[in-house]
Amino acid sequence: MRNTLHFKLKNKKVQEDVFNAIVKEQESIGYYGLPEQDISTVLDFAKTIPDDITQIAIIGIGGSSLGAKAIYEFIKPTRSLKRELYFFESTDPINVNNLISQLDFKKTHFLIISKSGTTVETFSIYKYIYSLNQNPKAYTFITDPDSPLEKYANDINASVLYLPDNVGGRFSVLSTVGLIPLALSGIDIQSLLDGALTLKKSFFDAGYIKNTLLKKAVYYARNHSQYSINCIFAYSETLKYFSEWYVQLWGESLGKTQRHSAFNVGLTPIGLIGPKDQHSFLQLIMEGTRDKSVTFIKIENFQDDIVIPDISLKHLESLDTLNNLPFSKLINMQCDSVIEALLEEDIPLDTITLKKVNEENIGALMYYYEILTSLVGELIDVNTYNQPGVEAGKIILKQKLKEQKS
Ligand code: PA5
After folding, report:
1. How far apart are alpha carbons 365 and 359 in whole angstroms?
2. 120-132 and 93-101 helices cross at what angle (nearest 10)?
3. Any catalytic annotation for residue 394?
4. Residue 389 burial (CB < 10 Å; 0-12/13-18/19+)?
5. pTM of this prediction?
6. Measuring from each residue's beta carbon to the nearest atom of ligand 1, which residues come in under 6 Å?
7. SS3 label, residue 21
8. In the chain, what are the domains?
9. CA–CA separation, 176 and 68 (whole Å)
């Protein structure tokens, strides 16, 4: 993974201070240690799921689903995987019914993933599915130790796996939360962790990414009132769900009341996909209010490349310049052209280049964004790891549910 910044920043002292704060934070925040974990429990569990189970249904929301979905949807188009994953994340009845209609219950294992063990969306869907299939062997629960969900799973004799309690939901993709579904699908989870570990070492051991990540974080924090919107512009459809994961990580971590003041702050994430969004959102970046920074993500080597045929279309001869061009070259030329146009407008931007679509690269990219989020959170003085705003809505809903029962 390469990251090139197209903006300048000098302040070394702030960079040093935030680096030291993050080094210290490793003692209490669990996600930093995930790349080094021993995955034998995950692999042993995966072996207990018989080969005739070909569908894995994940029931979970937010941090309990978005990370695994991002990685699965990144790898799946380039690989023939062992099992299909289905994500039940919504209480939209059309969506629930539609997903159920795609499942063959005899060939499906259900993973119910909830750190708190009490999330309304997850358990309304679980109740519905459980009413259709009450065999406890069809279910595995992933939750915090001692959560009500652990007790329930033990009562019905279903398997339970844990995530470390100091790993927050949206930072849990490299824990059992992401690793179990991904291992069951046939994705190489060790390579995923290896990619994250390479990135981690590069940051903490003064490698190539340390300077870049620190500069970028300080730039975002320093300029957060002017450039309050941070767009990711990914030039590959495979990164569509990575964008969703980024939006959650960035938004839920950084939109907060400051720890040492009464101010509300936050940076707004936007996930864009090229070239599609060149024909929509790009106009707003180019000529709209100057409040956006952009990170372009490119893939250097699209394994499944195809070439535009050497065909001349009558009256459309001006498009002959496309002839014999590989699609991979075209999409990256499109990205480079937009970068050039934005640089002329002085829009702050950077580019991340992934060599190819594989586990190492997505592992590194996600870990990169986790560290960046932690750095920016520290710099804008918020608690990156809580989500009182989300909790407030959950409490009101639970109250409303009680009221409609009485
Ligand atoms: O990042 C978070 O903490 C949240 O987005 C949670 O992941 C989400 O609310 C789901 O919670 P739970 O895993 O407890 O069901």
Report:
1. 10
2. 40
3. yes
4. middle
5. 0.96
6. 61-64, 114-116, 119, 122, 168-170, 252, 387, 390
7. helix
8. 2-26+191-388 (3.40.50.10490), 31-188 (3.40.50.10490)
9. 10
